[in-house]
Amino acid sequence: MSTATLPSYEDATTRYEVVIGLETHVELGTRTKMFCGCSTVFGAEPNTQVCPVCLGLPGSLPVANGAAIEATIRIGLALNCGIAKWCRFARKNYFYPDMPKNFQTSQYDEPLCEDGYVDVDVDGETVRIPIERVHLEEDTGKSLHVGGTGRIQGSSESLVDYNRAGIPLVEIVTRPIVGAGAMAPEVARAYVTELREIVRSLGVSDVRMEQGSLRCDVNTSLNLPGAEWGTRTETKNVNSLRSVERAARSEIPRQASLLDAGERIVQETRHFHEDTGDTTPGRSKETATDYRYFPEPDLAPMAPDPQWVADLKAALPELPRQRRKRLQAQWGLSDHDMASVLNADAVDLIEATIAAGASSESARKWWMGELSRHANDQDLDLAQVPITPAQVAQLQGLIDAGTLNDKLARQVIEGVLAGEGDPEKVANARGLAVVSDTGALTKAVDDAIAANPDVADKVRGGKVAAAGALVGAVMKATKGQADAKTVRELIVQKLS
Amino acid sequence: MSDLTKRTAAELAASMEAGEVTSEQVTRAFVDRIAAVDDKIHAFLHVDAEGALATARRVDADRAAGKDLAPLAGVPIAIKDIVVTKGLPTTAGSKMLESWIPPYDATIVERIRAAGMPILGKTNCDEFAMGSSTEYSAYGNTFNPWDLERIPGGSGGGSSAAVAARMAPLAIGTDTGGSIRQPGAVTGTVGAKPTYGANSRYGLIAFSSSLDTPGPVTRTMLDAAMLHEVICGHDPRDSTSIPQPVPPVVEAARQGLSGDLSGMRLGIIKEFAEEKGAEPGVVAAFEAGVEALAKLGATIEEVSCPHFTYALPAYYLISPSECSSNLARYDSVRYGLRVGDDGQHSLEEVMSATREAGFGPEVKRRIILGTYALSAGYVDQFYGQAQKVRTLITRDFEAAYSKVDALVSPTTPFVAFKFGSRTADPYQMYLADLFTIPSNLSGGPAISVPSGLSDGLPAGFQVMAPTMRDDVAYRVCAALESTQEPRLSDMIPDVV
To answer: ipTM score here?
Structure first.
């Protein structure tokens, strides 16, 4: 191990150029597995979603899932790739207990999709990420190592669940991303975020990093300006968007310190630790594993009909970046405000709220204000907050009709979140409504004037601003159920 | 009742249909015959008398009830132990699968069961079908009924010996480089390799996926054709099976048996005729066969297939390559043998010890060959080059079939050899498949029919035809059979 001191991130990225590459695996949400009819539903009892094919029993044969091929081509098209006119599956041979056949049916030199790009926005700038390939393969099973640290080394036994074995997996590989400098980790995160949005918009995967349906390896290398690219490491176990950025951010100074000390970078996989933000060494890749790829003889070649591919391309949905640009313009938001909306994962919610009848301004106000605060307090995703866009729109409708004011609306939200029903029902049940009975209001105003003669005199003397204290008194007397604007008008009228 | 085991499958079917005999009586006759002679032949690894008789009784009941039955209903059959049978042990001739009971049926077994054919048991074969003498079975030799000091051919020596010794009227073999035809030739029986893809490989334990083809082993051409029509046809579970109707082979066999071949153009392969390794008696039997066919009206011409000379080396790169990958799954984790799992050894050590103990010498040789042929730096010059040769051989066939309807050759260069005479030098063993391998590489159908005796031992006559023209091969072979009086398969010495 190196005893070299760790340079600061800023120092490291000033002196070294950073090259980043990302390999992302997306589990497709097809109903059945890649090569058999077994279910792909997540979370079933171990080894209940298996058959002779995905267990690799002697004699079994694969049949390719057409829906998975279609989904892969759509991902390729959304990433501006060319689609192969003819290509094959290949066997990647290596021994591992969670791989039933001890080869993975994958693609090698003939991927379904090649040579694309995706544009991402980082700090208001557009960065074009080059895509090398998108290919289709099968997932492996899952090993559970019992005893020790949970990794295979030092464990007392290993259990294998083959439910995941054979689930269709799309691998998306970028070309090396150069020139991002200190921004490289943010670019990496922005890319994975964008990729996730794109895949989600296509409806082909639920892309949940925490469930492993989106998995990402971050390749990092450093080189001195003008020098050749350095040796890269491959960071695995990166299970959230934030971790993508953190993994790269921790790897850059580590490599810089080794290079500073004149040491070489070991080509290896590294294991990212969510808790510390550090990486530790995994498998060495110094001697390349020979996977002995050859075309899969059990499957027919794929030759997607060009007309079908053209139809798939024409039928692609509006992609997330275009949609964001369109919504930002429609909602009249600054880049900064739009970025906040995106960070809060509020785009869909706001759009749905608008569709349910609210103005863009009010929809954004509720989701980015009260409801975001609630999500933070409860440690929920915004979408998990138990209120629907339709309910938010209904709430805003009550405000617009003068039935609620903002303060009451917040109490109504509390009721909705507590499961008391729609905003109207909550307002009725809790007796929350703006006091519009002018008789009661007039009495409250008269009482306030009588109780605060000094203030009343100031207002009479022309100091209209002083009316605020009287408004406050009225609001207090009506427990907030009066409309403050109406109260102010009444007071000014009485004292003029 | 005369000895039922002397009747052909077609005769047995007709007798049952006519109500002269029941399937139970027929099945019992073969079960008794197995009990009487198999200790001398050792064709069976597993006999399922009870299962076979139960099926027979069910078919008899169905027949009595007037139900529609398949043409071969009630006719028993033996199945090579490399084809998986639900609930019946399936070892592939290997220690690796000694205790394995498959949880599913191969497609061809499903079809056999659906046709109401009692399954007598599983027949011996070279381990994972690798061999030409059945000497590489982990369960001991099978003996040739013509001469118990000689091999029955391989890999399907058990199926051919069972049929030759009248322990089964029909059997299933599998042919990767000649494993149906060469045992047929040396036991004086019929062995038919259908077009690759004409039937399903689903449930056939893979040796070499792009070559393996299951097919009929019988005593007559009509029986082979009838069995062909039971097992062949497209199967959606095998992506390499051909979605086309089965050629009318029963009709073609009947046509051939009528003894008229006028208009049929047959080609003798120049390069095979020049092969010095063929025994004179084998060549003489072949020439007699050609003469007989010419007398029936066939025209004979010589055609050149210049790349056939390279078929054997190409085969010994392609098939070991695929086998090295196909056999990787036998790792002790999910099923089959496990060695060294004593808590003291790592997973890798257990896998390694299991494969060391579970595989025999020929299987190991081919795994090593194939691993080498696919390894980085060699894959292009070995596996890749062999695939090019394969293409050239397919083109040789295409060119030949532009001139002739079928190609004819001896099935194998030599008659049944003595045990141990070719195990010392693998190449001497591999030469057994010299004439059979080209049609595996091209995928076209090829049938071996007995053509005469050489020093009292049977020699085989091979007819090869274009892809999906199995009917042509059946017609020519049946015509040759029609010239024999008595039929060679009726001349097999009785081992009792």
So the answer is: 0.96
